[in-house]
Amino acid sequence: AAAARLVEEHAGRLDALVNNAGITGGHPQEPTLVGVDQVRAAVETNVIGVIRVTNALLPLLRRAPSPRIVNVSSSVGSLTLQTT
User: Fold this and answer.
1) 6, 19, 55, 59: most buried, per Cβ within 10 A?
2) Residue at 69 is within a domain
3) Which long-range contacts (CB under 8 A, 24 or more apart) does 68-72 make?
4) What contacts 72, CB < 8 A, 6 or more positions away?
């Protein structure tokens, strides 16, 4: 919400939103060993955080002539690489 207010004050619209923040949740990564708190922190940041930021900025994106939302992932988002 604070970021949306700042963009509103300075630009009045948002042409592009790049969601690139994320956390691994720590180690271990194996489903049978990982703690619920680790999973919760990762989901709060990597899933719910993206939704909250996107929803907060949607009104500003809708003011742009050709708005774009880009969701970036890295090897941290790869189930294969995180479980080997």
Assistant:
1) 19
2) yes
3) 68/15, 68/16, 68/17, 69/16, 69/17, 69/19, 70/16, 70/17, 70/18, 70/19, 71/19, 72/18, 72/19, 72/20
4) 18, 19, 20
For residues 20 and 18, give the distance between their C-alpha atoms in angstroms, rounded to a whole number: 6
How many domains are contained in the chain? 1
Per the structure, the complete domain to which residue 52 belongs is given by: 2-74
pTM: 0.78
φ, ψ for residue 32, nearest 5 deg: -80, -10
In a domain, 82, yes or no: no
Tokens coding 36: 């619920």
| 26-66 pLDDT, tens digit each | 776 777 888 888 889 888 988 999 999 999 999 999 999 99
> 53 is written with which tokens?
């930021």
Q: Per the domain annotation, does 62 fall within a domain? A: yes
